[in-house]
Amino acid sequence: MEKDTQSSKYDAQNIQVLKGLEAVRKRPDLEEISLKAKQGNVLSLAMTMNIDYSSLKRALEELKVLNLVPGINKSKVIPLARLKTNKELIMFSKKYDLSKFSTRETYKLVKKWNKSLTKDPLKLLSKDQHDLVVGSLFGDVSVRKKNRNAFFRVSHSKKQKKYLNYKWDELKGFIKKRYFYQKILNNRLLETYELNSISHPVFNFYRDLFYKNGKKVVTREALDLLTSKSLAIWICDDGSYDNKQGYVILCTNSFSKKEHEIMKKYFNEVWGLDPTIGFRDKKYYYLRFKQDDSKILVRIIEPHIPEGMEYKIGEKNG
Asked: Which residue among 34, 115, 116, 295 is least crowded, i.e. fewest CB within 10 A of its CB?
């Protein structure tokens, strides 16, 4: 039987919550509630079902942790619940024999684990997931900070719903829900699909790399993370193809001329391409690849273009 050496002290409020927790634990429909919680907000669910939020949250955390790490002492659920995804909870429990650590020591191990993810996201993310996040960050994605941890947000038009679903599939485990918005702008109906990830230490790596003083920036350090796949994602997000002229344009409008010079040098040194820095509307810069360079660029990224985005490289969608 696993032993825990940490003593626990509860004030009157905590005792009341624990009493409520025991009642929630005994609910025969807890598994069903858990499935509903995965699709929405636990607070809203608690209010709808007239269940104490703290008790419901703790019971659902226990259910998740105990299903993935059977036999663990329930006192360790709270620190282990800070591991937000099933994948990392399983990885963590395989890395450490949790029966040998007290609750206090488990807290420290979890803190060390989360800190390590802010330095090396590939400890948790697959290479494909990493490439998707990097490519998207040069394009349409924003990574915002919420309290200690950052989260990933992306939106696409209705036309690109399939592309958004592709990102959803790649990042399963980090994204709970898709959102659909409609609004009228200049007498036009705009329909947008959006994904928001959970807040997670792994996204802090990208926030620190791509943002300075709250603004997204381009650096050579970030560019050097690009692969043929992440470059394809960048083109799908911000690229366009001129079918008449046969060239690719990167609509990098939000970046400065200096940042465009950094990008131009990168493409020249890494991919052997020599894009032109364009300027329009007296305020926006962009990159344009000459015909021959566009052909080379298309060959590089074509194997990684998601279904439905073929038009970004001058092909008809399959």
From this structure: 115
